[in-house]
Design a protein that fits this description.
This protein has 2 helices and 5 strands; from the N terminus they run E-E-H-E-E-E-H. It has 2 domains: about 1-45, no CATH class; about 45-84, no CATH class. Strand 4 (about 55-60) and strand 5 (about 60-65) form a beta hairpin. The protein has helices spanning about 15-35, 65-75, and strands at about 5, 10, 50, 55-60, 60-65.
Length: about 80
């Protein structure tokens, strides 16, 4: 397993560059066979780190996106029941 699909986002991940090249070829070929096309301007290839669904994914593992954590930390303290 080397691909995650969520709605219209596709994440391809691999342990090595050689493996990644093969995985990309497979995914792009399947898309072509199914007549599904990706807009090149929205594609990013060969990233070492990527933000995906609120997480940062890299060779070091998966972590919560710091921007999401910061947004929660900046929430004000609720002062009434309706604000909770």
């Amino acid at each position: 397993r080397f691909v995650v699909v969520f709605i219209d986002d596709i994440l391809v991940y691999s342990k090595t560059e050689e493996e990644h090249e093969e995985h990309l070829k497979i995914v792009l070929e399947v898309l072509r066979e199914k007549k599904l096309y990706a807009k090149f301007s929205k594609c990013e290839f060969w990233l070492r780190e990527v933000s995906f669904l609120g997480h940062v994914i890299s060779s070091g593992g998966i972590a919560v996106d710091p921007a999401k954590v910061e947004a929660v930390q900046e929430w004000g303290t609720p002062e009434s029941v309706t604000e909770i």
